[in-house]
Amino acid sequence: MSASAVYILDVKGKVMICRNYRGNIDMSIIDNFMPLVMDKEEEGVSAPIIQYGNITFIYIKCNNLYLVATTKKNANVALVFQFLHRCVQVFSEYFKELEEESIRDNFVIIYELLDEVMDFGFPQTTDSKILQEYITQEGHKLEVAPRPPMAVTNAVSWRSEGIKYRKNEVFLDIIESVNLLVSGSGSVLRSEIVGAVKMRVYLSGMPELRLGLNDKVLFESTGRGKSKSVELEDVKFNQCVRLSRFENDRTISFIPPDGEFELMSYRLNTHVKPLIWVESVIERHAHSRIEFMIKAKSQFKRRSTANNVEIVVTVPTDADCPKFKTTAGSCRYAPDQNAMIWTIKSFPGGKEYLMRAHFGLPSVVNEDLEGKAPIHVRFEIPYFTVSGIQVRYLKIIEKSGYQALPWVRYITQNGDYQLRTG
């Protein structure tokens, strides 16, 4: 990476705190940063990388603060940006909110953190859980500095040694969000599943976990091609996963961080049948009133149930005197959103419900612009995945040989889920 120095500036460009890591540039070079940013803005350019002679400024903005890294070398810019964002994350976890006041109140601890997160321009420990073990809010009061935890010098930098729990448990949630766009004529224009495997780990010692999914590539390589499997795309893993092991035999093997984290994310660009189908009929009556008839149908299996379903329908900006009639749930008018929201707490599969709404229209408006906004649907279906992904096994191996309880949940929810009204 080779960053020469890191600065934190206020909104006017005044240096609040800085750290020189390589000593190969004049630290006063930062005086040129703010005029360069303003020049770019006047030109209508917003560039997060600015070249000045043989120096490069790489920066991000957070709550009216600028975090700036300077470099003379041909640095890995993506890594520099990731480092700056990790610094924001670490500071936020220490001070709750990263802003001018929290910087002024915590100079000493920020200098300590800047010393630990980078060494001679190369990122080191940027995991706040590990840093909090030996850089405390009170600072070092002992005459002899405490020994850093093994995680700092260990290959497993995301987990400390000596973790103990009376009850060893693992909670694994597979959460899939459905992005869907349906045209006014009823054809699916865009459908996509975005999934995440989230974990909460409360295990003693240094356990190794192995997760098996019904992965299509694995099933085909082991001669189980006809079994029900899922072809995962754009898979991204947490740093704890052994990538070489996954590439060799598709085994997801890892020593987990302690507590809550996202193990992996994936995407499936498959055709998704709309889980909740919504049709609308809108009738206008000579600038006096407007009537809606909305039909909602659940198109998933009867044994599943969608919870907290919200169907959001846009109404004219000048609508008033709302009246609603529904066969299930309740409806309310939300004037701040220019919408009515039909809420159905429990929507079993294979059901169909109707809602009728009546609004007064006191003024004359451009009818072409009204009623064209898409209907948005929000929902959550527990114990169900659209992709059919399944956890085949979750093995927990620890040298002390304790028994641990793994808990697995599946949840499908809406992402950007829209149905156009035509």
UniProtKB/TrEMBL annotation:
PROSITE patterns: CLAT_ADAPTOR_M_1 (PS00990), CLAT_ADAPTOR_M_2 (PS00991), MHD (PS51072). GO terms for cellular component: clathrin adaptor complex; clathrin-coated vesicle membrane. GO terms for biological process: intracellular protein transport; vesicle-mediated transport. It is a peripheral membrane protein. Belongs to the adaptor complexes medium subunit family. It comes from the Eukaryota. Its main location: membrane. It is found in: Cytoplasmic vesicle, Clathrin-coated vesicle membrane. InterPro entries: Adaptor_comp_med_subunit (IPR050431), AP2_Mu_C_sf (IPR036168), AP_mu_sigma_su (IPR022775), Clathrin_mu (IPR001392), Clathrin_mu_CS (IPR018240), Longin-like_dom_sf (IPR011012), MHD (IPR028565). Transmembrane segments: none annotated. It comes from Capitella teleta. Residues 167-420 form the MHD domain. It holds the Pfam family Adap_comp_sub. Gene3D superfamilies: 3.30.450.60, Mu homology domain, subdomain B. The keyword Isomerase does not apply. This is MHD domain-containing protein. The keyword Membrane applies. Keywords: Cytoplasmic vesicle, Membrane, Protein transport, Transport.
